[in-house]
Design brief:
By secondary structure, the protein is an alpha/beta fold. Helix content is about 30%, strand content about 30%.
């Protein structure tokens, strides 16, 4: 049977000052009435029955998760809590183990809770194709045709064509250097990794046993949710990209038939909104003079923002914090967030 696992435990530090530790990005409502998490659930509820939708998150987000799940009638027992975040591979392996104990033939669709996706019909057809591949024992990735040599994504190099828009994966490179990204961008058969995966629970656990045996030995000790707190402190953080995807030879890829953006930063968000003739995005009370390629928004703040002669700049205003950043430096907001945790804890 098919199951969905939604990863909803991230802090979203690159989305500061709107995203905070107490209310991170997945709970924000930026596009319409749904939060990112709610939009994710809405997309998959026609693919996977609601009783098979699982959420993995942190204890501090449990009240908000419960509140947002009510209208979808997702079972609260399907919420899996990490005592602390340890990156994607421990979270995924934990869910695979818990679901496998329930259904030894479980086929999993794993997806983040903070992506922007348009074309629900294309998304649905792509997911069903991926689930059909993973049911055959493959680890299936969803590939996005890149439009720039971006540093924030993993890169998939495809091999032989299996079927229309389905390829074997020749190799996987997680978050390359700029020079490597530029070279990859020019090659044929290159795709971004969307961060959406399909695999059978037993298959992913066998792969973990092969490539991350210590993690496997720890995860299989978890036989019920009560075991998590005992085992979790022994586990080291590791991403599925570095821990598994760069090593596995059991990968296939389906080309996405929908519009996708991983809104991991303010600069990425800029790619979604429409722009004026000078490439500006103004989402607040702003008087602008002679600025080009700027992004200005206010959330909960009623201050007037005035800009003169700016270029390539991001301005985000909230009641207690103001962010001003060069667009090309927006990835550095994650480091800024860590600095703020040390110096201005009330602002994170």
């Amino acid at each position: 049977m098919n199951y969905a696992v939604i990863l909803a435990g991230g802090v979203g530090s690159r989305f500061w000052p709107l995203s905070r530790r107490s209310h991170p990005k997945q709970f924000l409502r930026i596009f319409g009435k749904d939060s990112f998490l709610e939009a994710t659930i809405r997309r998959i509820q026609t693919i996977v029955p609601r009783e098979n939708i699982f959420i993995v998150t942190n204890q501090i987000y449990l009240p908000e998760i419960k509140r947002q799940l009510r209208k979808f009638r997702v079972h609260q027992e399907n919420i899996i809590l990490e005592p602390k975040p340890l990156n994607t591979l421990p979270a995924i392996s934990l869910c695979a183990q818990i679901i496998r104990l329930k259904d030894s033939l479980a086929n999993l669709l794993v997806l983040p809770s903070d992506h922007y996706i348009k074309d629900s019909r294309g998304f649905k057809s792509t997911m069903f194709r991926a689930l059909s591949l993973s049911a055959k024992g493959l680890i299936c990735l969803i590939g996005i045709k890149p439009d720039s040599p971006c540093l924030g994504y993993g890169y998939i190099k495809t091999g032989r064509k299996i079927d229309k828009d389905i390829f074997a994966v020749k190799c996987f490179k997680e978050k390359p250097t700029l020079n490597t990204a530029r070279k990859l961008f020019k090659e044929k058969g290159i795709f971004w990794n969307s961060g959406i995966f399909c695999f059978k629970a037993e298959v992913i656990l066998k792969e973990i046993k092969t490539y991350v045996p210590k993690l496997y030995a720890q995860i299989i000790q978890i036989r019920q949710k009560q075991d998590i707190k005992k085992i979790w402190p022994k586990i080291k953080p590791i991403s599925i990209d570095y821990g598994l995807l760069e090593k596995s030879s059991n990968l296939a890829m389906v080309r996405a038939k929908f519009y996708w953006r991983d809104l991991g930063s303010w600069d990425a968000l800029c790619s979604v909104f429409s722009k004026d003739r000078k490439n500006n995005i103004i989402l607040s009370d702003c008087v602008n003079l002679d600025s080009t390629n700027i992004f200005v928004c206010s959330y909960g703040s009623k201050r007037l923002i005035a800009t003169v002669g700016l270029e390539d700049t991001i301005i985000v205003d909230t009641p207690d914090a103001l962010l001003v950043s060069r667009k090309e430096k927006s990835e550095g907001i994650k480091r800024l967030f860590e600095l703020l945790k040390q110096k201005r804890k009330q602002c994170v």
